[in-house]
Design a protein that fits this description.
By secondary structure, the protein is α/β, with parallel strands linked by helices. Helices cover 41% and strands 21% of the residues. The structure holds magnesium ion (MG).
């Protein structure tokens, strides 16, 4: 069996209402997915995290390096792609393009062997994971805190036991928002905040100290990802656990956060940090530092299912019989592509999401939705 073709699809969906966070506004969903087909006709799906048009260009560059290879040898393919792009892509979007191809190869391997990816990764430590709702972005107009409180209440009604909200507007507004959301959801729902590195160390410290009393599960990307030492300093100034990692690439980037004692929780993004192949190595590295992993997860059901399998395989803390739930990030902002692209659709039962048992990633792609969102009637950009 050899890799016969690599096709990319640029999916886009204009949002009816844009929403924003501390860095920019979302007015459109734009996602790059990749379809890898083997000479046996097995199809694998992958997805990258990052600017979709650049991801697609990256995959175009990598295509000739994978055509004709045995897709089951995903580690050696991974290394070959890494080595050949190392001089100009030690970090950044080309690593995300490698990640997309890597996911597709794991999907193929699972389908070829008739096993779910979580089993191929080494085995399932859990059959279900606890989703936390990512939402509570900013919107224009008066009454933001009230709107956020209403949105948070909806998530609780839907069965979520944990919710993450955006901060990073101003300390005063963040404080008002957090206060309103905590009052609306009560004491039994876990609440996290994410600044997307909006703050300086001084500002992040001030905000952390002011919201500590609202029982915050973690403070995500409080400061610039460049300042590993500021992450560490903040950990010493607040009781709130500090998290980060979605801007890091490869085991080498994540090692900076670990060796600098920057985070309590490492948030590797499988679709940009190097795929499942590299995420597994990053998990091993994090375990040697005793740092918990809760992946950053964005995009379509392809990325979400890759995260489900990865989390199922994460080692629990050794030395205890009953382990706590492992979390998965479940973006609840408007995303028609996520809702329609993959089958079966993501389903929450009694507050949990089950890890798929079907071979590969455990999803199929709806070709109708693919054509609709990519604007392509027949096939993607095909090579090979
Ligand atoms: Mg984040």
């Amino acid at each position: 069996m050899k890799i016969a073709s690599v096709e990319t699809y640029l999916l886009s969906d204009k949002l009816e209402e844009s929403f924003f966070f501390s860095q920019w506004a979302y007015a459109e969903r734009r996602i790059c997915v990749v379809k890898v087909t083997t000479t046996c006709g097995i199809v694998g799906w992958g997805e990258g995290y990052g600017p979709a048009d650049v991801l697609e260009a990256g995959i175009r560059l990598l295509k000739p390096m994978v055509i004709g290879k045995n897709p089951l040898e995903q580690e050696s393919i991974w290394f070959d792609l890494y080595r050949k792009t190392l001089d100009f892509a030690r970090r950044g979007i080309l690593v995300a393009s490698i990640s997309a191809i890597d996911l597709a190869l794991w999907d193929i391997k699972g389908k070829f062997l008739g096993q779910p990816v979580s089993v191929l990764l080494g085995g399932r430590h859990r059959e279900r994971v606890l989703p936390y709702a990512t939402g509570l972005y900013f919107s224009e107009g008066e009454g933001l805190a009230n709107r956020l409180a209403c949105e948070a209440t909806e998530y609780v009604k839907q069965g979520f036991k944990a919710i993450k909200m955006k901060v990073g507007l101003t300390i005063e507004q963040d404080l008002a928002n957090v206060r309103a959301v905590r009052a609306a959801i009560g004491d039994n729902i876990k609440l996290m905040v994410d600044a997307n590195h909006a703050y300086s160390l001084r500002e992040a410290t001030e905000l952390a100290r002011k919201i500590e009393k609202y029982d915050i599960g973690w403070f995500e990307e409080p400061v610039s990802p460049e300042f590993y030492h500021h992450y560490k300093a903040l950990r010493g100034k607040t009781t709130i656990p500090i998290s980060g990692g979605e801007c890091e690439y490869l085991r080498y980037g994540h090692h900076q956060l670990l060796k600098n004692e920057s985070v309590d929780i490492l948030q590797v993004d499988i679709c940009s940090a190097g795929g499942l192949t590299e995420a597994k190595r990053i998990a091993a590295l994090a375990s040697t530092y005793g740092v918990e992993i809760i992946p950053h997860t964005w995009g379509t059901g392809i990325a979400f299912h890759a995260a489900l399998h990865f989390i199922s395989n994460l080692e629990p803390v050794p030395g205890r019989l009953y382990n706590p739930d492992f979390y998965i990030e479940y973006d609840r902002t408007s995303n028609g592509i996520r809702e329609r692209l993959t089958i079966p659709s993501i389903e929450m039962k009694e507050g949990y999401i089950e890890v798929p048992t079907a071979p590969g990633l455990g999803i199929e792609v709806d070709e109708g939705a693919l054509a609709f969102y990519s604007g392509k009637k027949l096939h993607g950009t095909k090579t090979g």
